[in-house]
Amino acid sequence: MRGLFVTGTDTGVGKTRVAAAMIRALGCGGLKTVGMKPVASGSASSARGLRNEDALLLQAVANLPRSYELVNPYAFAPPIAPHLAAQEAGVRIELAHILESYRRLCEGADAVVVEGIGGWQVPFGNAWGLPELARAFGLPVVLVVGLRLGCLNHALLSARAIRSDGLHLAGWVANAIDPGFERRAENLATLERSLNAPLLADIPWQPQLPVETLAARLDRALLLSLLDNAE
Questions:
Q1: Catalytic (active-site) positions
Q2: Does residue 88 belong to any structural domain of this protein?
């Protein structure tokens, strides 16, 4: 299956909106595309069970309908680290269950975009976490860098960890999350020189930017080439 795994330098850096924009861009390019958020914390109760806002967005922007349970196999109520949320709920996050949901989700699709949770080293249990999940999917990784003070350290450490865990850093997205971030252009230039991966989009500070606008800012040709190279 062709696809991309979206991770971030931290929580709250815009992973979901970038993942949603990728799904929309690929769908507008004629591909049957689905999205997945395997594990989510910070979910609200509904008549049909817990629902996570980020997972709902990924479900909504995909052009192939899929059940919520396939898009988000593990949803937890409190907005805390997933292994702690799972422990409190008396649930064990199982890789086999995630992979079976992924297999069913991808049936009939041309491409999938999977969004992680938090940063790269988030644990799901005592012996495994996000790196093991990404390896199991076998998808190239796109890193969302939240542009704020400290982003150089966070981005370079994340890139090093992704590669040392045996994954391919296929590209990255610069996402402005601090309107007062000083020396933005200089920091962006440093990241372009240092990350050794193509820049898919430079997203300016603009709260509530529509997904369609974000999708238009992505380099669609580059996005498609990343999928082709992942085959």
A1: 37
A2: no
* Rg from Cα positions in the chain: 17
User: For residue 231, what pLDDT band results from cuts at 50, 70 and 90?
Assistant: low
Q: Packing angle between helix 15-28 and helix 220-230, nearest 10 degrees?
A: 90
Cα separation, 18 vs 35, whole angstroms: 12
DSSP codes, 185-211: HHHHHHHHHHS-S-EEEEE-S-TT--H
- Whether 159 maps to a domain, the answer reads yes
175-201 b/e with 16+ CB inside 10 Å = b?
bbbeeebeebeebbeebeeebebbbbb
Question: What is the span of the domain harbouring residue 220?
Answer: 2-34+57-62+108-230
| Other beta carbons less than 10 A from residue 9's beta carbon | 27
Query: CA 107, CA 104: separation in Å to the nearest integer?
Result: 5
Each residue's pLDDT tens digit, 138-147: 999 999 999 9
Decide if 73 is inside a domain: no
Instruction: Please tell me the distance from the alpha carbon of residue 219 to that of residue 108, in angstroms, as a whole number.
Output: 25
> Do residues 214 and 25 touch, judged by C-beta distance below 8 A?
no
**145 part of a folded domain:** yes
Digit-coded pLDDT (tens) for 40-90:
999 999 999 999 999 999 999 999 999 999 999 999 999 999 999 999 999
Q: What is the pLDDT of residue 172?
A: 98
**pTM for the structure as a whole:** 0.96
